[in-house]
Amino acid sequence: MVRRKQQYEENQGQAVSTALRALLFGALMTLGMAGNAHAMSPADLSPDSSLGRVFVTPDGSILAQGAVGGDGWHDPGTPLILKFRPDGEPDTDFAEGGALRLDSLKGQSAGLLYEPGAGMVVISGGSLMKLDASGSVDSGFGVNGTVSSISSEYLGGLRMTAIALDAVGGIVVAGGTYKGDFRLARFTNRGAPDESFGGDGTVQIAKPNPGGMIFPDALAVDRLSRIVAVDGTGRSPTAMRLMPNGDLDPSFGPGGNGFTGPFEPEDVFRDFTGSRDLVIGPDGGIHLYGVTNPNVYFYSNVGYFLDPDGKSEALFHDYGFGGSGVFAETPGGGIATTEAPFRGQSFGFSVGRSDADFWYKPRLAPKETNTNDITYSPSDNTLVSVGEAKGSECTATCSDKTYGVIAKIDADSGKPVPGFGTGGAKLVPENKCSYGEAEPFDPGVSTPWHRCRVKPPRIKPKIAVAGGGGRKPGFRGHVRLAAAPTAPAFLKRTLRIKLPKRLKLKRDKARNKLYARVIGAGEAETKVSLKGRVITIKLRPGSSGFDPNANYPARTYPPENGPVSFKFGIKRGGLKPIGKASRHMRLGFRLRATYAASGTFSEDFDGLLPEHLPTSAWAGPNSATKVVRVRPTGKVPRAGR
After folding, report:
1. pLDDT digits (tens, 9 = 90+) for 70-96
2. Which residues have CB under 8 Å from 205's CB, separation 6+?
3. 358 torsion bin: left (phi>0), alpha (psi -120 to 50), beta (else)
4. pLDDT at 13 (0 to 100)
5. pLDDT class for 38, splitting at 50, 70, 90?
6. Who contacts 155 (Cβ-Cβ below 8 Å, separation ≥6)?
7. pLDDT tens-digit profile of 121-158?
8. Angle CA 247–251–257, to nearest 5
9. Contact 440, 450 (CB under 8 A)
10. Cα separation, 290 vs 407, whole angstroms
């Protein structure tokens, strides 16, 4: 998955704060966010959506931030903010439908920070915008709801790399460079510079500083309004603490200078690749979570725990889990996280706890899935996680799309919360199929993602029966099945002919008397079988004539998905006598045709791959039935006609 791959590569050595890793990209015009937003329902969103951040309000409502459209690499799409009630239903009081699309930021990345006393702050580039609980822009914040040009006006031209909100709505931002430039700025809940901080709202840390910090990687504000900043650019992190007025806290750190110095775990050499989360505990202790790279092929989630004064050596915890960099604290000292794959493995949506023996791994999609963020909900003791899943949009072409995922599980047992979505998870937008839904991926397991059905076939039949009153009846048929524009998959097609009750196959002769021919099937393989009163003709896509360089794009379909004609019959002597019958009798033949997609589009070959690759058959079948009633005649069917 694109966005998960991007995060995985960031684990390879980039040290940027957790909040800004998901939030700070692109630039924002001063009044753009305030003037161009679109309220809608989550159900109205188009596919290619993703959720990257999640927060829980005191009443248990869920705020999720993500994007719609784009490709996750060069085009981040249009930012979204969504609000759900505790049961997963959209909160229609938020943005008049539950979803706020920031159209003015199309093509730019943005993010969201939330604190109960501070509300919501949208971040993009060097600008901030504040929203109230209804999703409306707070016009009393900054200029028309926006504070812009933070990097150039308040951080001395440094790139903003970390941000934190305090309990009363104050905002602290920090910036730095690898040369050791280090500056912080603080704003009031109205977006004005807090002049009690450094005299003009800004503070510059002397270079070189006693702690050797060069890059503000994460920020947090404690209940006494003291600011903790962490630098994680070296082998291990370094922390400092500022008083509310911006002075270094002389009670913090072993040297009494406001710095802790780097922490060196004694057990094994580790290369700290950046902070992902910074939490101030109820006792004032500092909890820092990040990722280490102990060797070339492995990453690990780790935690550093400092006492409230930062004077003792930090406690070091190795949580493993492949270095996902996703954390949420749970009561009792547990850590909720997600698994990240080792090299060569595929990503997957998962949530688990370090101190509990459970993993929640819903089967969400046939292709890549990803968990981007986790938070703990104290109102109902649950874990809420968001991410994305990649599968098909249920249209005739079944083209690949990405859907946002939100899941909720019990924090103690790991079981899905009943009534939340399907099996504890839901898609944004819901994956509704134009042609109906096939069965879930895992039989007996409730998951929100059903396979996409292909377009149902159209049947054009002609059938004739001869010798209806004699001892050696026979019949012949001609059935034409329409083309199915089901790119990028090949089609498996099946035709079943159920004979009338008065006609039965002779076990000893029917197979020799049966003939079947398919026209227009290309390289498809044909298989004919008999059972009871049913004749089954199966067509499976062939591979002998497959050209991997043919480049069948998603908007078209390969030749083997075109129309086909079935010619079949049983010569006289292959059926049991009808018995007493007349030429006026009508016999009903029941025809059932089934289409099922198989095969997948491959970027490696820039085209389609045959169905025998295991990634096939995720697009579920669709079928059509038609009954043909015919009168027996005296004509004798001949083979091949």
Report:
1. 776 678 889 999 999 999 999 999 998
2. 182, 183, 184, 213, 240
3. beta
4. 35
5. confident
6. 173, 174, 175, 183, 185, 202
7. 999 878 999 999 889 989 999 998 899 989 889 998 88
8. 60
9. yes
10. 23
- Tell me how far apart the alpha carbons of residues 499 and 527 are, in angstroms, rounded to a whole number: 19
**Beta-bridge mates of residue 598:** 490
- The residue written with tokens 């510059």 in the block is 204
Chain position carrying tokens 């005739």: 396
Chain position carrying tokens 């028309």: 144
55 Cβ contact partners less than 8 Å away, ≥ 6 residues apart:
62, 63, 64, 112, 114, 375
pTM, whole model, 2 decimals?
0.77
Q: Is residue 101 a contact partner of residue 49, using CB atoms and an 8 Å limit?
A: no
Strand partners, 2: none
Alpha-carbon span 474 to 632, nearest angstrom:
9
User: Would you state the structure tokens that stand for residue 139, as one six-digit string?
Assistant: 């016009």
Query: Which amino acid, one-letter code, is at 324?
Result: S
- Pick the range with the lowest mean pLDDT from 210-224, 312-326, 383-397, 511-525: 383-397
Strand-by-strand arrangement of the 490-498 sheet: 525-531, 534-540, 490-498, 587-598, 622-630
Q: Which burial class, exposed, middle or buried, applies to 331 when counting CB atoms under 10 A from its CB (0-12, 13-18, 19+)?
A: exposed
What six digits make up the tokens of 56? Answer: 């829980």
- Please identify which residue in the block is written with the tokens 């730019």: 108
Confidence of residue 311 (pLDDT cuts 50, 70, 90): confident
Of 135, 69, 68, residue with least CA distance to 100: 135
Is the preceding omega at residue 216 within 30 degrees of 0, hence cis? Answer: no
Q: Residues 213, 166: contact at Cβ < 8 Å?
A: no
Helix (H, G, I), strand (E, B) or coil at 637: coil
Residue among 211, 207, 200, 246 at smallest CA distance from 227? 246
